[in-house]
Amino acid sequence: MSAGVEHRHGEAACPLAPVHRTLQSPILERVVQRNRQREFDMTHGNGARFTTTARPGTDGPVLAAAGDLDLASAPLLSRAIEQALDERPSPSVLTVDLAGVAFCDSAGLNALLTTRTRARNQSTEMRLAAPCEQVLMLLEMTGADALFPLEPAGPANSPS
What we know:
Layout: H1 17-23, H2 26-43, E1 51-55, E2 62-69, H3 74-86, E3 93-104, H4 106-121, E4 125-129, H5 133-142, E5 150-151
Parallel strand pairs: 2-3, 3-4, 4-5
Antiparallel strand pairs: 1-2
Helix pairs in contact: 3-4
């Protein structure tokens, strides 16, 4: 068993066996390592850089994000999405291109979910494009993948 997961009963009889296996995944190990590094970086002033870039797409604006989407950067993404949603007339589709995002924690997910609610309230469909394996796993584990149309290969509505 990996560190922090204590298994006190037989694997076959354990109703939480799938969860335990998930907790042992290499992806989770990388997330734990990355969080430890991030804590060190924040303590020593070496925070990661996060950027957003807006560009027109055929269906509506495409907002490309790059960097780690975490507690420090989630407000930046929220602000960029809010600005795209403030455009008049309101876009019918807003695509958030996550190809440059290698990590997302619960704060990043909350930013996506909160802005999705606003988008939906103004009849804008918010799509996620090219999420990496870790972000896709987070979306799937939380059920958020059912809330966003996903474009795994990148935004289909990039300009021609």
